């Protein structure tokens, strides 16, 4: 297990929420996702994740979305799902060097009636 995955598993709940600028949505990050963004070059991964929030709201159906990242050779692959196993999209993104090859990273996003809250699984 990489140091990053070990660090992220230490986040349980959050003490603060951090607003993520977006032109059309209200998105907040928890302590765990902020730590991830501060210590990894994973902005492209988060960008692809947030692009699906608007689609989910317009469809008025999915209020829980998951992201799974995995390193495959020299790149990263992101899969975005609803909570029931339906895959919205696959994206190729830059590799996160802090993760070991084949290691998986997950994020959750929940609509709380006014914000998308993005968190690591241990904060759920």
Estimated radius of gyration: 14 Å
Run of helices and strands? HEEHHEEEEE
Residue stretches low in confidence (pLDDT < 50, at least 5 long) are none
Taking the alpha carbons of the first and last residues, their distance comes to: 21 Å
Structure explained in plain terms:
The protein is of the alpha+beta class and 124 residues long. Helices cover 26% and strands 35% of the residues. The chain has a 7-stranded mixed β-sheet. The two termini are 21 Å apart.
Quick summary:
With 124 residues, the chain is an alpha+beta fold.
Provide key terms for this protein:
alpha+beta; globular; 124 residues; Nuclear Transport Factor 2, Chain: A
Helices, strands, pairings?
Layout: H1 3-9, E1 18-20, E2 27-29, H2 31-39, H3 43-58, E3 64-72, E4 75-82, E5 87-94, E6 104-111, E7 116-119
Parallel strand pairs: 2-7
Antiparallel strand pairs: 1-2, 3-4, 3-6, 4-5, 6-7
